[in-house]
Amino acid sequence: MARHLITSALPYINGIKHLGNLVGSQLPADLYARYLRARGHEVMFICATDEHGTPAELAAAKTGEAVADYCARMHGVQTTLADGFGLSFDHYGRSSSDRNRALTQHFAGRLADQGYIREVVEKQVYSHADNRFLPDRYIEGTCPNCGYDKARGDQCENCTKQLDPTDLINPRSAISGSTDLEVRETKHLYLRQSALKGDIAAWIDGKADWPILTTSIARKWLNDGDGLQDRGITRDLDWGVPVKRGDADWPGMEGKVFYVWFDAPIEYIGATAEWADATGADDAAWRRWWRLDQGAEDVTYTQFMGKDNVPFHTLSFPATLIGSGEPWKMVDYIKSFNYLTYQGGQFSTSQGRGVFMDHALEILPADYWRWWLLSHAPESGDSEFTWENFQQSVNKDLADVLGNFVSRITKFCRAKFGEAVPEGPAWAPPNWP
Prior knowledge:
This protein has helices at 19-38, 54-63, 67-84, 98-113, 197-205, 212-223, 260-279, 283-290, 310-323, 357-363, 366-375, 387-417, and strands spanning 3-8, 42-49, 91-94, 117-127, 132-133, 139-142, 151-152, 169-173, 181-191, 231-232, 234-235, 244-245, 248-249, 257-258, 299-306, 333-337, 340-342, 345-346, 383-385. The protein is of the alpha/beta class. The protein has a domain at 3-115 and 197-220 and 260-383: Rossmann fold (3-Layer(aba) Sandwich), CATH 3.40.50.620. The protein has a 5-stranded parallel sheet with strand order 3-2-1-15-16, sandwiched between helices. Strands 5-4-9-10 form a 4-stranded antiparallel sheet. Helix 5 crosses helix 9 (310-323), helix 6 (212-223) packs across helix 9 (310-323) and helix 7 (260-279) packs across helix 9.
């Protein structure tokens, strides 16, 4: 019996997820977890809601709720929908948990001790109308790379290019829509990814079995232009993990929080610790999945995600683990997916475009959706969802082909065995090689 750790990319808390999110990470991860369990292996399948950063604050502001209350409510909604789709998580955690907060602050302290954190005085956009700095997704504008006019200040969802807010053309506040913006100085912490480039490159070079999609994106960010850049890991926000150096305060960082893309991948570890808490186990139970010095040396770790998440999981999160100088389990295989498009355009949570998980379950039971999505998973290229294709595929492959097969077998069994199901030996998991 082998031990397998499986994680799927954390869905943002800012609303109900669409079918593109589902097929790009959670659903194929669930299929793999079920397959491994059926073969008798020990599996730890982890996911969680990603609750920090701008999306949570903006979504809560729209509903008039306190951000903590909004996140708690939406975690319940997403948990119910995950159950409705039969996603077999061992634990579905929350990045706002005490476990993740402590782990994030621990990693920051370790990175600082190892010399991989530097303080940077940088220029950031300030909104006079909102009376505040506007980090990341609080700014929208035109992408300088592809011309998409709804690009966010951290990444363009159209071309996936990572951005800084000051890169955007014709920027505007995502809160008020105001263009009365000014660039001011503020101080932040940066993870010195550039100092870890050699370690990360060597690690990626050792993953010859990874999908080309995964390695091509990773190497692009490693080598294009000036290569791997240092990345800001703090933000001027109210909601998030407070900036501390382990348990100690961090002078000059008062009132700041860690960047969501710093703390979110750490929640894979945090959620496993939450699982131990929820099951009454001790810390040794989760550490045996994550610490090489405490039992994780025989674990195979597989991550599932959409291609837009690849840079953070092949560069930033590995930089955090390697830079800590501690024996953490690194991912063995990253299964990345292209996009599932909708009727000729992109699915979009922020724009409400596409088929969303709650509406899908109102239309048909989960198995219809699971089958269609997995049979059209965007592995070698983008796939497209259209209602016409969905209808034709269900009618032909399920109703006709599978239905005909079931009908023939049922009639055969009835003819040979009457109305009684024949006796058989007790079922046991197969002893496959």
